Amino acid sequence: MSEKKLMKGNEAIGEAAITAGCRHFFGYPITPQSELPAYLSKRMPQVEGVFLQAESEVSAINMVYGAAASGVRVMTSSSSPGVSLKQEGISYLASSELPSVVCNIMRAGPGLGTIQPSQSDYFQAVKGGGHGDYHCLVLAPNSVQEIVDLVRLAFDLADHYKNPAMILIDGVLGQMMEPVDFGNYKPTFVEKPWAANGCKDRKPNAITSIHIDPKDMEQHNLRLQKKYALISEKEQRSEEWMMEDADIMVASYGMTSRIVKSAIRKAREEGIKVGLFRPITLWPFPEKKLDENINRVKEILVVELSAGQMIEDIKLVNNGRLPVSFHGRMGGMTPSVEDIYDEIKKIHDRLTVKA
Asked: pLDDT (tens digit, 9 = 90+) per residue, 236-260?
């Protein structure tokens, strides 16, 4: 039986990456993710890895491109404004099909905003963010243990699909300390015959994101879209909690979903049939499981730390079948259990009057 360790979320990301076989990190400090590069600046030399604090976020993401092109497991991290600066490089990684992991510990915006937690980078993460038609795999943990599990999964999925993967969490989870179990996990590495890692015994590998001929560029795009369709079919993940008999579904992800669970417990004590639908993969969005749950409930409440971003994907799957309500907080403010309970109670009372 493995021993649990009490770790801060940001530090758990770093240790999980090391256990996943990552030995290269390029980043730049920004609150509230600075503990992650600080942790790796100590740990990487201990495992004969490379830690480099770049002169900027733009430099860091291009260093990730170079390392990924050589075939090694590589990661970078930042917080919201810093990830904005990395978007051009992330688009290059996606086009060049270079596996890599990007961690965004979100803070409130727009602009420099505040260092307090937010979920307002959802659009940036799941709708591309940079230029062109591309997707990152996007994973959203809701505990420090799940951070460990999903960071490892992110490296595996990135390698399997030759695609950048993103870990999207808010500043609360990055700063929170919880016990984690690293288990006896051993990373599984895949062959990378495409890598630019020396060509003494073979022809050189050329890795590029530019295709001057528009016909070639279109064919490249079509091949990428085929890959994204496969990922969407195979990699949707979600949690359904107390949904078996629910009349009301609350949709939430990440740290916010834990506040929602407390509100649901309170509502259940009063006989209100309500459950949680939690997307774990934000892209691909778990539309198949969401559709199944929509067919069983009477109304939907979406809770986010934003003005409402994931709600658009909920509405697309819902396609006008059920009423959809929203409760969001912005600017680094978080909803209370009572706030969410009150929204659930309003929906329950409305459904009771209709009945």
From this structure: 999 999 999 999 999 999 999 999 9
